[in-house]
Amino acid sequence: MDQPDSDGFIVIRAKGRRQRKPKTKAQHHGKAQNSLFSTSAEHHDPRQVTRHIEAVSDKKSTLCQGAFHEKLAAILQALHDFGPEETVVYGIGTFSSEQSQWQLALVLLLNQTLNTRILAYDPVLSSNDLAVLAHFDIETISENEQARRTAQRRTLFYMPHCERELYENVVDANNNSAAQLEMIAILGNRLSRYIDVDNGQLARVSPSLCRVLPKLTTMELPDEKLLCLRHRPFAFSDTCFQRILAPTSSAVA
C-alpha cells in the first residue's frame, strides 16, 4: 500500500451503521474458510491466479538471497524471540500490484520461521486475490474489523503502509493492560513518525498510540537497495518491526 489514504479501510469514528465506500489501492499496493470469501473465491480466473502465485513465489525466492536476506536475520531473530502464535495481515492490497506481491512474499518468508496461522483482510481483495491467499493457506477474515482485534494469543500484526487510524485501533483494542500490549507486535509503518506528521496533535487524534510510543522498540527492515533490483518495489519503505514493552522488559536487540 503506498499512501496512508489509499488502503481501502473505512475507519469508524463513532457508533452507528455507515455506508462502506472502499477506496482503490492502485499503486502500492486461507484457506478461505468463511462463507463470504469462499463463495467469492469460486469465481476466480485460474490463469490470472496462477500468474500471481508464480510472481509471489519468485519474489519470495529473491528475498531469500543476498545481502537483504542476511540483514533480515536480525528481524527473524526478534520475531522468533517474540514467539507469535498468530499473524494477522491488514491492508495487503490486490495482487495485481507488484508492491502487494512483494509484501505477501515477505510475510510468507517470515512465516517459514514463525510457522503461525495467518489471517488476512483488505476491502479491495478480489476473487482472484482470495484464491491466491487460499493457495498459500492464508485464511480470510469475514468482515471489516477496522483493525480492532483483541489478541487472544501472541499476535504479529502485519500492516504494510496502513493508515495511522488502523494502527491506533490495533493498539487501542489491546490497551487494557501492559501484559495485553506485550502480546502484540506490529510490522508496519514506523509509528514514531506520526509525532512529526501530526504536528503535536497525536494525543488528540490517536491517544492510545501516543501513550505507548515511549515504550516502543523498533527495528527497521533492510533497505530495498540490497535486493539489487533494476526498479525498487517501494513495498517496504519505512517498514519496521515494533513491540510495546513494559519498562522492566528487555528491549528488542
From TrEMBL:
Stated name of the protein: SRR1-like domain-containing protein
Listed GO CC annotations: cytoplasm; nucleus
Membership in a protein family: Belongs to the SRR1 family.
Region (Disordered): 1-44
Composition bias type Basic residues, residue spans: 14-31
All residue ranges annotated as the SRR1-like domain in the record: 79-242
Pfam families registered for this protein in UniProt: SRR1
Domain of life from the UniProt record: Eukaryota
